[in-house]
Request: fold
Amino acid sequence: MRLKRLAVLLVGLASVPLRSPAQQLPRSLPSDLDAYVTRTMRQFQVPGMALAVVKDGRVLLARGYGVRLLGDPTPVDARTLFGIASNTKAFTATALGLLVEEGKLDWDAPVIRYLPGFQMWDPYVTRELTIRDLLVHRSGLGLGAGDLLWWPPSTYDRKEIVRRLRFLQPVTSFRSAYAYDNVLYLVAGEVIEAVSGQAWEDFVTRRILAPVGMTGSDVRHSGAAAGGNVATTHAPVEGRVRVVAPFTSDNTNPAGGIMSNAEDMAKWMMVQVDSGRLADGTRLFPPRMARQLWAPVTPQAIGAGGAPELAALRPNFSGYALGFGTRDYRGRKILTHTGGLPGYVSRLTLVPEHRLGIAVLTNQESVEAFQAITWRLLDHFLGGPATDWVTAYARVKAREDSGLAAGQRKAVAARDTASRPSLPLERYVGTYVDAWYGTVLIAPEGAGLMIRFAHTPALVGDLVHWQYDTFIARWRDRDLRADAYVTFALKPDGTVDQVKMAPVSAATDFSFDFQDLLLRPTRP
Reply:
């Protein structure tokens, strides 16, 4: 998703009559939008999609495309619910902002003022981590650190997940680097409850969804299984797009739990691009709070190179604000965020300068689809040249898929198939404990071994020997798409000292943070 601003040609501008941007730029939808969306969905095998576009205080579009369930003719409409996943983070940031406006919170006050029992690994970070820090991915934790506490659904409740953060070791110093996390948004949810006396779900429903008019939306992951007008989740599994089980655990609602639709997302974007103004002219929040939410806090690196087809998308600046990413495109500041869950991916994009908002929600895990539609609409409204983003993303995806396949072939070719485990299989059996996750069991199963994560019912798999003292955990739930290497390190006496894990495929979702586990055998 690397993005780049196009240069502006100034030669000869003095001879051209000047007009204001408002006069130059379109205020209506592209005439070929429906055909473009249909083509995008076909190219990237997306069964259903919801699309909302707002501009200058008007809803230009709030409608559904395609079907809720592959093979079923029931259409997606403007009220069909999709999981918006991490686009929920802006709602959590807004909830905190409302409490700041009421004088009940301070953005730069330490979290321990409101949650005295909260701890991070480093006592200094525990003391200094602020409410703002919870939202901006600069705590020192690694990418997706601690996500295995809740992903796949675990037996831990929200408070226990927060308690276990003290055992997560940082990978960088405090506030020195950007690394996306979810678990600190759970802490933000706990702050909201401690300060307001309402659970995050109740506060967001009453203080945000109700006044905005988002009457069709739900604040819980579990809404994906509630039935009714809900888009069914789909994903590519072993080469074929099919139905996958939705994520239904409500532990992480503050980080990604909202279910919404085209109509309601249009209302939400209208409030945001109008700096907090509601449809009736009153305010959800004042403009000064919008400035807080939209101001970048944590810089993000802009890498060199990237796919040549996407060179025009490379930004000049990129950073993370409060629940929004912020960057430039064609000379304008834009706010944007993506979201991903099993079977749902989405993107929301705002251009406050032009009071423009675009939301794309899908029921298939195709990042390429929401990107192609978002950039097509941004180019239209910002006066950019026509670009065939569908073809561009199709080429990039084909190359990435080819690279993944080549990587898998390379790993297989490098495998020492003649190697054998150092120990008889029964000597790998035991109970292993990681400081932050907890217990993982390795037990005999038939003629082999199986692995079971004690607090994650879905993480049960067969250990298939790979080479030497490395096995592959082949999860029995194939929807997970997250097989992992399991490597045993031995002591000089031939007993197991520790076990490390790592994803087998580079395509594994980062929330399977197996690489952060350090499993040690328990002693009798």
In short: The longest strand covers residues 332-341.
